[in-house]
TrEMBL record:
Belongs to the 6-phosphogluconate dehydrogenase family. Residues 178-468 form the 6-phosphogluconate dehydrogenase C-terminal domain. It comes from Actinoplanes couchii. This is 6-phosphogluconate dehydrogenase, decarboxylating. Its EC number is 1.1.1.44. Pathway: Carbohydrate degradation; pentose phosphate pathway; D-ribulose 5-phosphate from D-glucose 6-phosphate (oxidative stage): step 3/3. The gene is gnd. It is an enzyme of class 1 (oxidoreductase).
Length: 477
């Protein structure tokens, strides 16, 4: 008997993926650098399906049917390269090495190119949903050669999350496309979390609501258009009471948000592509500010002043307004993330269908939400949509939200409560809709000090003005 698929790297993620394959009736070959984990899996979960454990890489490879499908689920980075180096010589033409870890898409592109030269298919697969997702159905974003999807896709679709029977798994595009889309998914997740955190902060500080009350507000929102996994778990977190102190859990946690790096990667990639993902960037920076202990301590010691006591109160229904601001800012963050996916798709020739990305994020992953249905519909109508904001559903939503959104941004500024996500999303929105941007002045400045030239609104061509010679150093912008 041969296995349809093999998994090497049997820590929590690999183990759960292997069990998921087995529970769907596939025979699964097992391998791990140290045999202990392999043994443990078979002892604890062997009854869930058919597993073929191997101690050596060679036996593992021999236990697989052709073309061999080897899922690598090890620590991202050098460990992945070490595993590839170990397995590539044991595989034959047409076999597949499938990296399901959180690799950087540039590493995936490099690895695919190297293995292609050896006749092997390297498939970078984004897997979202953490350990629970891996076991019960993740959202899966496979890249790599399209031919490989024919042999691999059905297995991945089997174990993926389903929405009305439709798997949350589709071939994203060739080479690093899958890992790129997974990275942007994580970037959007950062933005979503930051916006939710700002909503909580305003409800608490401006509205004076307790965490338990805010939990109920979020629960209510979860029934409406904001309905999503992140809103749902936020309500749970806010409801939680610390057993040892009796205080709200949220008050006993140190207010420094950590990060593993995928948000940062998203922003770095966006900078290279020239895509303004300000919502994601603000959320990464907000985490950095929260972790900036020396600066925050110095600011507290210096007593950086807040607004005067006469700062304005919120005019309007705060809870309703914050819901509108949250929804509108969320739309902006997703619009930017999808724009980044489209830009990368163009840059690398990936031919990614954005509506399909919204489709496979509807379940199994952290940003799963009702909202994604509307994104899918928007791109189904027009895959080349320049920005989600001009799709009728989102245009109506933002038009309906904008007065409340502005009131919330004003209140935050007047009361000295940081809301970088809400405010920068609004600034992005206003920049898009501005008929004239002050970029014209920047062009003038650039031409002044660097003779960088400019274009005119009234005739074609490049122009340079002979500015007064004084005070014009010859430096580049
Ligand atoms: P870890 O990232 O903790 O990695 C541990 C595994 O890697 C073990 O099987 C270990 O083998 C193996 N390993 C480490 N170094 C080497 C090496 N040099 N050669 C061979 N094997 C090595 O495991 P996780 O299960 O947490 O995560 C696996 C992957 O999934 C990672 O890429 C991670 O980023 C990603 N991940 C994704 C999540 C998601 O939601 N999508 C959530 C969590 C992780 P040994 O037992 O011998 O030490």
């Amino acid at each position: 008997q041969k296995a349809q698929i093999g998994v090497t790297g049997l820590a929590v993620m690999g183990r759960n993926l292997a069990r998921n394959f087995a529970r769907h009736g596939h025979t699964v070959a097992l391998h791990n650098r140290s045999y202990g984990r392999t043994k443990e899996l078979v002892e604890e979960f062997g009854h869930e399906g058919t597993f073929l454990p191997s101690e050596s890489a060679a036996d593992f490879v021999a236990s697989l049917e052709r073309p061999r499908r080897v899922v690598i689920m090890v620590k991202a980075g050098p460990a992945t390269d070490a595993v590839i180096d170990e397995f590539a010589p044991l595989l034959e033409e047409g076999d597949m090495l499938i990296d399901a870890g959180n690799a950087h898409y540039a590493d995936t592109r490099r690895r695919e190119a190297a293995l292609k030269a050896k006749g092997l298919h390297f498939v970078g697969v984004g897997v979202s949903g953490g350990e629970e997702g891996a076991l019960h159905g993740p959202s899966i974003m496979p890249g790599g050669p399209k031919e490989s999807y024919e042999a691999l896709g059905p297995l991945l679709e089997d174990i993926a999350a389903k929405v009305d029977g439709v798997p949350c798994c589709v071939h994203v595009g060739p080479d690093g496309a899958g890992h790129f889309v997974k990275m942007v998914h994580n970037g959007i997740e950062y933005a979503d979390m930051q916006l939710i955190a700002e909503a909580y902060d305003l409800l608490r500080q401006v509205g004076g609501h307790s965490p338990a009350e805010i939990a109920d507000i979020f629960k209510g929102w979860n029934e409406g258009r904001l309905g999503s996994y992140l809103i749902e778990i936020t309500a749970e977190v806010l409801k939680q009471v610390d057993a040892s102190t009796g205080k709200p859990f949220v008050d006993i946690v140190v207010d420094r948000a950590e990060q593993k790096g995928t948000g940062r990667w998203t922003v770095q990639a966006a900078l290279d592509l020239g895509v303004p993902v300000s919502g994601i960037a603000e959320s990464v920076f907000a985490r950095a500010i929260s972790g900036g202990v020396p600066e925050r301590t110095a600011a507290a010691e210096a007593g950086l002043p807040g607004p005067s006591a006469t700062a304005g109160q919120h005019t309007g229904d705060l809870v309703a307004d914050v819901e509108q601001a949250l929804f509108a800012s969320k739309i902006v963050a997703y619009a930017q993330g999808f724009q980044q996916i489209q830009a990368a798709s163009k840059e690398y020739d990936w031919d990614i269908n954005p509506g399909e990305m919204a489709k496979i994020w509807r379940d199994g992953c952290i940003i799963r939400a009702k909202f994604l249905d509307f994104i899918k519909q928007a791109y189904d109508k027009n895959a080349a949509l320049p920005t989600l904001l001009v799709d009728q559903y989102f245009l109506d939503a933002v038009s309906g939200a904008q007065d409340a959104w502005r009131r919330v941004a004003v209140t935050a500024a007047q009361q000295g409560i940081p809301a970088p996500g809400f405010s920068s999303a609004l600034a992005y929105y206003d920049s898009l809709r501005a008929s004239r941007l002050p970029a014209a002045l920047i062009q003038g400045q650039r031409d002044f000090f660097g003779a960088h030239t400019y274009q005119r609104v009234d005739k074609p061509g490049s122009f340079h003005t002979l500015w007064a010679a004084e005070g014009r150093p010859e430096v580049d912008a």
